[in-house]
Give the backbone structure.
Amino acid sequence: MADASVAAVETGPHWTRQARDIVDDLQQRSALIYWTDFLASVGAAWALAFCFFLTPGWGAIAVLSLLASAILFFRAGTFIHEIIHFRAGELAWFARAWNLLMGIPLLMPWIFYKNHVEHHSVRYFGTPDDGEYLPLAAAPLRETVKYLLQAPLLPVFTVLRFGVVAPLSFLHRGVREWVLTAASAGVSNPYYRKRFPAADEWHLRIMEVLCFLWLLALVLLLAKGEISWMLLLKGYVLVGLTLSLNWVRNLAAHSYSNRGERMTLAEQFSDSINITGQTWLTVLMFPVGLRYHALHHLFPFLPYHNLGKAHARLIARLPAGSPYHAVNCHSYFVAVANLWHSARRTAPQDSAITLWRQRKART
C-alpha cells in the first residue's frame, strides 16, 4: 500500500516537488569545472583554427582542422547559455573571460543572449514574444527549410550588425531605437521584437565598441596586406560552421508545435526534449548539457556538469508513467523526423507562423 501511494504522488500533478527533492543537492556550480572545461575547449579551438588558417588551400589537414575547431568553438560558445543562468555576481570573471576569448572575436557577446531568460517564462515561452521559439512543427515544411537556409548567412548578419549598423546608430537616435528593438538579441525567431533593457544598455554599448574595433583591426590588417582575403574567407567559413552547428542542434530542443498560446510550466516542460542516446553525435551536437533540454526547463539553475547525474536519478526514482519519462528521445534524428513529419502534414492556411508575422506587423 505504501508503494502505491508513493507512485500516486509521483505521477500526480505535484510530481515536480518530488523531482526537486531528488536533485536539490546538485545545485552547486563548480568553478574549477567551468574554468577547466572552457579554457581547454577554447584553447584547443583557437590552436586548431590557426592550423586551419595557416594551412594553404583546402586540403585534408585544413578541412580536418576546420571541423575540429568549429566543434570546439561550438562547445566553448555554449557556455553563453550557462552564463545567462548565473546568479547575480556568480563567476563574474568567467563571463568576462568568455567575452574576451569568444564573444568579441566571434561577434557574439553574452549580453546579446540576455533575452534567453524570457524563454523560461510562462508569459513568453512558445509565443511570438519568445525569441527562441518558432512553431516549425505547426507550419508548412517550407518554414523549416527557410530556417535552415539562414544558417550560412549568420556571420553576415553579425558583421553588419557590429561593423555598420552599430556605429551608425550612435549618430542617430531613431536608428539606435530600431537597433535596440530589432537587432540586439540572440534569437532564432526572426519575428521577435522587444526593446533591449535600458539597465543593460551601457554594457551593450561597450561590447559594440569592442566588436567594432575588432572588425576595424581586421580591415586595417587587410588593407596593409598583413592578412589576405583567403584568410577572411576561411574565418567566415569557420564562424559560419560554428554557428550552424547550434542552429541545426536547436531543431531537437523542443517539439515546436505550440500555436502561440501561453503555456504553463508543465506544458513548457512537455514541449522540451531530452536526447538520451549515448552516441558520438549526441556528444558532439549537445555539449555542455544541451542534451538534457527538458530537464533544464524543469530546473534552469542546475549546472551543466550535474545534469547527467540529475537525469540518471530522475529516471531511476520516478516511475515509468511520470511526465519526465515522456520527454526523453533516444536520437536527434528521431526528434527532427517528428518535427519534419508534422510540418509536412500542416497545410499553408493552417500555419502557426501567421500569428508570428502578425505579431511583428503590430510592432
Remarks:
- The first helix runs from residue 2 to 11.
- The longest strand covers residues 274-275.
